[in-house]
Protein: Metallophosphoesterase
Organism: Halorubellus litoreus
Amino acid sequence: MTAVEPVPDAPAAVVDADGRRLLAIADFHAGIESALRVERGVNLDSNADERRERLQALLADTGATELVVVGDFMHSIGGPGGAERGEIEVLVESLSVPVTVVKGNHDGDLGEWAAVDVTDAAGVRIGDVGFAHGHTWPAPEVLRADVVCVGHEHPQVRLTDEVGGSRVERVWLRGGLDPVAFAGQYDAGELPDADAAGDLVVFPAFNDRAGGTWTNVDGRGFLAPFLPDALRDGQAYLLDGTRLGRYDRI
């Protein structure tokens, strides 16, 4: 049985695949506060403890026996600073489950010093679920999975009420995977046929300070090289499960 089910009110999903129960998150961006201070002059207290406790609670509540980070466990693109490295080391040591990180564009040399398994940037397939961060082209075997999970995008929508007030909400994006979006990157026969392709799920960022792509606002382009073309009839869902409809028509 293959299932990728978002956890209600959380930027995380439970994945049942290959007889394993995984908790999957994307874009943790450990130590982001230090980077915001240096890069943008924004001073924020660290939320490292809150992020760790939230993740521990999700693992306990879901009964997951493994954690998969769908890229960008780290925040700095170069070598990690002290706060960032410290947050990851304390977090990993506090967890009682193995951690797999699907290498993202921010994960640098993570595998050389953290007690985690780091995959190739092209992603990994576990049973019938494929995982890739999304900053580069996924491996063909990942794209042939029943469900393909990606991060990188930090999808958000801007919602406006009748009196002009607005707010930004993190969302999930889910739709059919369109192989045509990948056709120029792979040899014939490597991609699934259009009628056999699975679903594509774009994860919201776990870290609510990481910003994101406003998917329903003109001029805010997607970051992944295959989006939005690869997302067929993509629907947007709030973290509480509310379906907003087509992400591009909200």
In short: The chain has a mean pLDDT of 91. The domain at 3-249 is CATH 3.60.21 (Purple Acid Phosphatase; chain A, domain 2). The chain has one domain: 3-249. The first strand starts at residue 3 and ends at 6.
